[in-house]
Design a protein that fits this description.
The longest helix is centred in the first third of the chain and has 6 residues. It is built from 3 helices and 15 strands. The two termini are 20 Å apart. The strands form 3 sheets. Strands 2, 3, 5, 9, 10, 12, 13 and 14 form an 8-stranded mixed beta sheet that branches. It has a 5-stranded antiparallel beta sheet with strand order 1-4-8-7-6, with no helix packed on it. It has a two-stranded antiparallel sheet with strand order 11-15. The protein has one domain: Baculovirus p35 (Sandwich), CATH 2.60.250. By secondary structure, it is mostly beta strands.
Length: 278
């Protein structure tokens, strides 16, 4: 999934698309969420060490809010069986990180963990959370600032009786960008969860992963399903801002249920989150 800088009440229906691009990778991300405060969604990225502050290029998909609706049309409707059941010091006067307007979002690229101090405190992940995720010590991070959700009309006493989210789920147009890859032979999907500023070994997944892999990667897609047609037959390629390869097929894989809390990598030496042993 992703990491949130503030507690969230609900995250569901996550869709992620990935495609190789000459040593870089396109990534498109969408989900529904409910949160009482402004917050940031943080996506760790395996960029080469010491990246420049302009290493990530953000892409505005405001004109293509149905990106994943169209993507689904490339696959036959069917029951999708789940995979499972059920810090560096920084100067106080360091310049703020650049903020990009990307449709409904403000976005920033954080080159390394120590640079989170250059963001508003509301949009940071606590340093001790990264201490429990040592694999990310030299990653970069794409940060998207999200609005607070509006309150449901039955919030309060009724919510105490029946539970659930007090705030209405928000769904925003897909977030998209391209970044330089540390390992060009792997496609990366940010699926690690930090939803309440805590890191746990297992997490509840509600994901659909999509990709357009290089030909040499197809042997690593045995558990994935290929689209029936080429992307140009079901996607509006012109509105995808170069993200979707028109002549390529797409692949998809559902990740649902209690799984290991880790990212997903496709290719030689890659891995999928497996069923949680609880």
């Amino acid at each position: 999934m992703c990491c949130f800088s503030q507690p969230v009440e609900l995250v569901k229906d996550t869709n992620i698309f990935a495609r190789s691009d000459n040593g870089r990778q396109f990534l498109v991300y969408s989900m529904s969420y409910a949160a009482p405060y402004e917050l940031a969604m943080v996506l760790p990225l395996p960029v080469p060490p010491d990246p420049s502050e302009d290493a990530v290029r953000f892409i505005n998909l405001q004109r293509y809010p149905t990106f994943f609706d169209d993507m689904r049309r490339g696959f036959p409707p069917r029951m999708l069986y789940p995979l499972g059941r059920g810090a560096t010091a920084i100067s106080l006067d360091a310049p703020k990180l650049r903020v990009h307007d990307v449709g409904d979002f403000e976005a920033s690229f954080v080159p390394q963990i120590g640079d989170f101090d250059r963001l508003d405190e509301r949009f940071r992940i606590p340093p001790d959370a990264w201490d429990r995720l040592p694999a990310y010590h030299d990653y970069g991070f794409a940060v998207f600032k999200l609005k607070a959700s509006s309150t449901r009309w039955f919030a309060g006493a009724v919510q105490k009786l029946f539970g659930g989210s007090v705030h209405k789920p928000c769904r925003v147009h897909p977030m998209a960008f391209t970044f330089p890859r540390r390992n060009p032979e792997l496609l990366y999907f940010p699926t690690v969860h930090v939803h309440d500023r805590e890191v746990r070994p297992h997490a509840t997944f509600d994901h659909m992963l999509y990709c357009q892999p290089d030909a040499m990667m197809e042997k690593y897609l045995r558990r994935w399903e290929m689209s029936q047609r080429r992307a140009s037959e079901f996607m509006d390629v012109a509105r995808s801002e170069g993200i979707v390869g028109s002549d390529q097929y797409c692949w998809r894989l559902p990740l649902n249920g209690q799984l290991q809390n880790r990212d997903t990598l496709v290719g030689e030496g890659g891995f999928l989150p497996e069923v949680a042993q609880v």
